[in-house]
Design brief:
Number of strands: 8
Number of domains: 2
Strand content: 5-15%
Largest sheet: 8 strands, mixed
Distance between the termini: 70 Å
Shape: elongated
CATH superfamily of the largest domain: NAD(P)-binding Rossmann-like Domain
CATH topology of the largest domain: Rossmann fold
CATH architecture of the largest domain: 3-Layer(aba) Sandwich
Order of helices and strands: EHEHEHEHEHEEHEHHHHHHH
Radius of gyration: 21 Å
Low-confidence stretches: none
Helix content: 40-55%
Strand order of the largest sheet: 3-2-1-4-5-6-7-8
Structural class: alpha/beta
Oligomer: single chain
Length: 299
């Protein structure tokens, strides 16, 4: 079966860019914007999406659905899509590309298959399609050929075989290092500020690890923007690790750091409105102010 029409839920930062890339390679890209925010609508327009009135219309018209959203919404969206599949009598393929645990992927597999659809376990590693290296879309399951035929159309598709959960597993392990490390560095910088040694630590990092310090200056001020979305991702990683007997504590802590970042006023920015003049020191100083008072401060 050739894929001609791809539906994407939802056209956010990653979703709209994937859709735009696929559209530039000749596919029709659709979505349902009912109840979506104004920013999502703008991104969908920017991506060249065709808006359809209802989720049922979307399922009826799509050969393949990509679910690209926050982990906390993944199973709920799968349930709504399953209901639309059941009502329309279609056998639409549903590729969950969210940062979820293999256990969550297995739950969604049951939901979609029970409705008569076809579930594809997926995950995305890398930034949105643009100039430079395209994102890698990992897929696993019996129907992955529907996605692998999109390889080279603005995305790189990599097969992980027939086992549901394998594509999700590689994302969990990869993001455990990338985003988990970002949380760790934010935590130690915040602790240094609270302990009054931020300037001394900055001098040491510039001298002994200049590349790391430059990376922190470039990345940390922007972390509050995705922080709320990454809380659930860290919790999914923690659950994945715990399931195989590895301590979940590292990424439970990472979730707490992202929760703290999400409470700053900087979290209300978007990639388009981010204050790029804000420094690393200014960002961390405000984060440290949100820490609970120490026992000696309460005495």
């Amino acid at each position: 079966m050739a894929v001609n029409t791809v539906a994407i839920l939802s056209p956010g930062d990653m979703g709209h860019a994937v859709g735009r890339a696929l559209g530039e390679h000749g596919l029709e890209v659709i979505t349902c914007l009912d109840g979506r925010s104004e920013r999502t609508r703008r991104l969908a327009e920017k991506g060249g999406f065709r808006d359809v009135p209802t989720l049922k219309d979307m399922i009826s018209q799509a050969d393949l659905v990509f679910s690209i959203l926050v982990p906390s919404e993944a199973i709920g969206v799968a349930r709504r899509v399953a209901e639309a599949i059941r009502v329309t009598g279609s056998d639409t393929a549903f590729a969950d590309c969210n940062a979820v645990s293999p256990q969550s992927a297995l739950v969604m597999n049951e939901i979609i298959n029970a409705a008569g659809g076809r579930f594809i376990d997926g995950s995305i590693i890398g930034g949105p399609p643009a100039k430079g290296t395209p994102p890698r879309v990992y897929v696993s399951g019996p129907d992955i050929s529907l996605v692998t035929e999109l390889d080279g159309k603005g995305i790189v598709v990599r097969s992980m075989g027939d086992g549901i959960g394998r594509a999700s597993a590689i994302k969990m392990c990869y993001a455990a290092g990338t985003k988990g490390t970002s949380a760790l560095y934010t935590a130690l910088l915040t602790a240094a500020d609270a302990l009054g040694v931020s300037e001394e630590l900055a001098v040491e990092l510039r001298a002994s690890q200049p590349d790391l310090h430059k990376r922190l200056e470039d990345q940390v001020p922007g972390l509050p923007i995705p922080a709320a979305r990454w809380i659930g991702e860290m919790e999914q990683i923690a659950a994945t690790f715990e399931h195989v007997g590895v301590t979940p504590a590292f990424h439970q802590g990472a979730a707490e750091m992202f929760r703290l970042l999400s409470q700053t006023p900087f979290a209300r920015e978007t990639p388009e409105t981010r204050d790029t003049s804000r420094t690393l020191a200014e960002t961390i100083s405000l984060v440290a102010k949100l820490l609970p008072p120490r026992s000696e401060d309460r005495d």
